[in-house]
Amino acid sequence: MNELEEMRRELQVLKDKVERKGVLNERLVKQSIRDNMKGIRHTIYKMLAVAVLVTPLWLFIKYQYNLTWPLFIFTLLIMYVSVFFDWIINRMDVDNLGKDLKETANSLMEMKKRRSLQEKIAFCVLPIWMLWLGYEFYHNIADHSEAIAIMIGAVVGGVIGGAIGLSIFFKWQRKNDEMIEQINDLMEEE
């Protein structure tokens, strides 16, 4: 009878260890999600700071080259709307992650889908904006060689900006994949 009691006690100790390991793994996954989402939020704050800094520069360019108010407003609108939707799409209450990690994984998948849609929309709007900008430069600058030089610079800037935007997009998508994979691995262990 004493051996049976000893075996039960050892079995209970083993069960407690397994349960603690599961809780520890879940805490590590939640901390990883918090850290990743914090990094994404910081990037969004940086993009907002850039948008705020670019606004007076864009106003200077508007007056310097006699660009129209609709182009000026449209440019600011797409810039700030993009940052706003980055914030909306990537918003997750990391301090109160649900007890159900499957729900968290589903939220991360939905985030990826919305982010992809936003990127598709941005790459549809970008050529329209570039053409409008080129049209205004060409028609508002008397020296057409200067207008063409500015348009070439705008295209180069657009390509560089697009590359930066895509790198941020792929980085965020990769972070989501990593978080989803961690959750799936943890759920498989249980």
Give a brief description.
The protein has 190 residues and is an all-alpha fold. It has helices spanning 2-64, 69-89, 101-140, 144-189.
Word description of this protein:
With 190 residues, this protein is an all-alpha fold. The longest helix is centred in the first third of the chain and has 63 residues, at 2-64. The chain starts with a helix and ends with a helix. The mean pLDDT is 85. It contains four helices and no strands. The protein is rod-shaped. It has helices at 2-64, 69-89, 101-140, 144-189.
Write a concise keyword list for the protein shown above.
single chain; 190 residues; mainly alpha; 4 helices; 89% helix; 0% strand; rod-shaped
Strand content: under 5%
- Which H/E pattern describes the elements? HHHH
Overall geometry: rod-shaped
Tell me the helix content. Answer: over 70%
- Mean pLDDT comes to 85
Total helical segments: 4
Give the distance, in angstroms, between the N- and C-terminal Cα atoms.
32 Å
Which regions are unreliable across 5 or more consecutive residues at pLDDT < 50? none
Number of strands: 0
Cα radius of gyration in angstroms: 26 Å
Structural class per helix/strand content?
A: mainly alpha
The major beta sheet can be summarized as: none
Please render the helix and strand layout as text.
Blueprint: H1 2-64, H2 69-89, H3 101-140, H4 144-189
Helix pairs in contact: 1-2, 1-4, 2-3, 3-4
